[in-house]
Amino acid sequence: MKDCIEYGSVVMEYAVEYRARKTLGICVHPDGSVEVKAPMEAPLEQIRKHVHRRAPWIYKQQRYFSSFGIHTPERKYVSGESHLYLGRQYMLRVVDSERNEVHYKGNILEVECRHRKDVRPLLMAWYRKRAEIKFKEYADPLIARFNRYQVKPSAIKLKEMATRWGSCTATGQILLNPRLVCAPRICIEYVIMHELCHLVYRNHTKAFYELLTQEMPDWEKWKMKLEKLMI
């Protein structure tokens, strides 16, 4: 459902998606679009009031994203393209081969393949495998730090998510977007830390942010870097 409010001289449009949840949530996407996730029973007037209260923040986020200008064009997965891995830029090199393999050396990310149509799926599979390895490596010491709070994730799993880098389920599973493997280590650690804090405080309360700041004092810096880099 589409709706809008007036914020000063700006007409602020947003989409409403009803879900089985208890609270209202707002997401501003890199293209400037606004999505409101609402409980199934939430009246429209309540949603409008919530959006109006959050309008200054929404406007600020839209201005922030627009400052980066045109987004990266759609990938074609051909030689010469630039691709990220752990925050570094690599030049893609596609090589005709009897093998289907992906490897990197120096600043080259090389895909050997029998058919050019397989370049993207091969690269995505490689990213996912690297994510499984690196996320565990980065998460283990952070999980150990949270022993002091007597909490521990029941599992850490990868999950493709359109608008989120991570989430924490009611059963204590931490879900991480495999695309995060393109970001620098510190940004990945920020997302993991954020979700670990949700094992202590489920919602984004003052206490939650106090804990996050205690464990990672400069978390806002890495959140902004992640948002800027991964548009």
From TrEMBL:
<feature type="domain" description="YgjP-like metallopeptidase">
    <location>
        <begin position="22"/>
        <end position="228"/>
    </location>
</feature>
<dbReference type="InterPro" id="IPR053136">
    <property type="entry name" value="UTP_pyrophosphatase-like"/>
</dbReference>
<dbReference type="InterPro" id="IPR002725">
    <property type="entry name" value="YgjP-like_metallopeptidase"/>
</dbReference>
<protein>
    <submittedName>
        <fullName>M48 family metallopeptidase</fullName>
    </submittedName>
</protein>
<dbReference type="Pfam" id="PF01863">
    <property type="entry name" value="YgjP-like"/>
</dbReference>
